[in-house]
What we know:
The protein contains 6 helices and 7 strands. It is an alpha+beta fold and 186 residues long. The chain has a 5-stranded antiparallel beta sheet.
Amino acid sequence: xxxxxxxxxxxxxxxxxxxxxxxxxxxxxxxxxxxxxxxxxxxxxxxxxxxxxxxxxxxxxxxxxxxxxxxxxxxxxxxxxxxxxxxxxxxxxxxxxxxxxxxxxxxxxxxxxxxxxxxxxxxxxxxxxxxxxxxxxxxxxxxxxxxxxxxxxxxxxxxxxxxxxxxxxxxxxxxxxxxxxxxxxx
Length: 186
């Protein structure tokens, strides 16, 4: 996985994040990896909780938070992507005049989260069926928050969506998405 991460043009991705607030990492997972991960949605032992969005006014659909140990390739991606995103986040903080700097390694950042009372993993898998959607939102789970995250479309594409952090209404079929959030929760 780290070799795959090294092949991306990180200066270009950083420029896209600066300019648009989002960037695309094409082929982050192979199609077979996406199908295998999506097929595990109903494996209760992988998850610590399930959220039905309509109950909370988050939209329609549901999501499940993975429990530790995280499944591969989620654990590998989380650790391998973090150093690149930490450098970007640290550059943002420096330009904003903020003293906060994120550690270079993900394990060190997670240690900060855990010491601050945030020991629960936040990577998740979302499931949408026809008519479902996810309202615009922020994923904040405590004082220790990382400003970037990854959304991976696991299902075959239905159509392109230009929302930064939400999901428009699904018109047909079923869509699975994995979310990699770098901080842990209370």
